[in-house]
Every structure is written in C-alpha cells, then in structure tokens.
Write a structure and sequence with these properties.
Oligomer: single chain
Helix content: over 70%
Radius of gyration: 17 Å
Mean pLDDT: 92
Strand content: under 5%
Number of strands: 0
Shape: globular
Order of helices and strands: HHHHHHH
Number of helices: 7
Distance between the termini: 38 Å
Length: 179
C-alpha cells in the first residue's frame, strides 16, 4: 500500500478520535501554558524542539543497528542512548500535537498513530537492551531491527504531521501560544 494512501486512511479514521482526544486532553492538563511548556515547545530557540530531538533518537538507534549488523562495537550503548533520548522527544512531540489535535481531526488521528508507533518502537528497543544484557545478542539485534522498521514508518507519519498538517510549525510566543 502506498504510504500516502495509508496516511489518508488514518486521517479519515474516526475510530481513533476517542483515544486521541483523551490523550490530547491529558497532555494539555499536564503541560499548561508557562515556562515548562515554553521549554518543551522550543519557544526559547524560536522553533519547535521536537524535530531536533528526533534526530538524536533516530541517529542513536540507526547507528547502533549499523554497528550490530557490521560487527562493530558500541551498539548496546547507542540503543541505551536512544532510549534515554526518546523520553524528552516524546514529551516535546506530545506537547506540540496536543495544541492542534482539538482543531485538526486529521492531525489528531495521525498524531496518535505516530505516538503509539514510537511507543512500540521504544518498547522493542527496551526489550532489545534487556536481551543484550542477558547475553541474547541475536534476539536483541532482531528486536532492534523491528524497532528501526517501526521507527521509519512512524517517522514518515511525523514528517506528514509537520510538513502537511503544520504541527509544530510557526513562530512561538512565551506562554505556549502561537500567533
């Protein structure tokens, strides 16, 4: 199936509305306008922080997998680094998404799938790190391969959110508001 067709189906799937609206409300209640929200949204640097942080997660996990597949050393540490970086990355993305999900049903739906896919990739990488720590390297690498595949699909959806739906795009003002 064409990625654009799949994205269109996700955008049209009202079945995602209940869970995504609940998650959006939870994020908005946890991260209210003010200094924390400004920090998470990148107000201090003039543009969204989330895309910068995604590069750290993607870079760490992809580099770790490359080392695993080529016999290099350090893959375990890169998987662990990506796990650590995934937490602030998720927080920044959720904060950006929660600001638009109430007024853009397509962004709401794609965003919840994007977030769930990233959470699943994180779970796979956690499993990979545990397997590696238990000496089950082949299993750890297999879980990392699966996580990176899911991360690629989710990254496509994230790009769609930014470049097509405009999530996280635009100048920011202190207090978490957008002009």
């Amino acid at each position: 199936m064409d990625p654009q067709d799949l994205t269109g189906r996700i955008e049209a799937s009202a079945d995602l509305d209940n869970v995504s609206a609940s998650v959006g409300a939870l994020v908005r209640s946890a991260v209210r306008p003010g200094p924390v929200k400004d920090a998470l949204q990148g107000t201090w640097m003039g543009h969204a922080l989330h895309p910068l942080l995604t590069d750290m997660v993607i870079g760490a996990w992809t580099s770790g997998l490359l080392l695993d597949l080529t016999g290099g050393r350090g893959g375990d540490r890169l998987v662990a680094a990506g796990i650590v970086c995934a937490v602030p990355t998720a927080l920044t993305g959720a904060t950006d998404w929660a600001d638009v999900e109430t007024r853009d049903p397509a962004a709401r739906r794609v965003g919840i799938v994007h977030g769930l896919a990233n959470a699943a990739a994180l779970g796979l990488q956690l499993g990979s790190l545990v397997a590696r720590g238990r000496g089950k390297r082949a299993r750890g690498v297999a879980l990392s391969v699966a996580a990176n595949g899911l991360l690629g699909a989710s990254g496509y959806l994230g790009g769609h959110l930014s470049y097509v739906r405009g999530v996280g795009i635009g100048a920011r003002e202190p207090g978490g508001s957008r002009p």
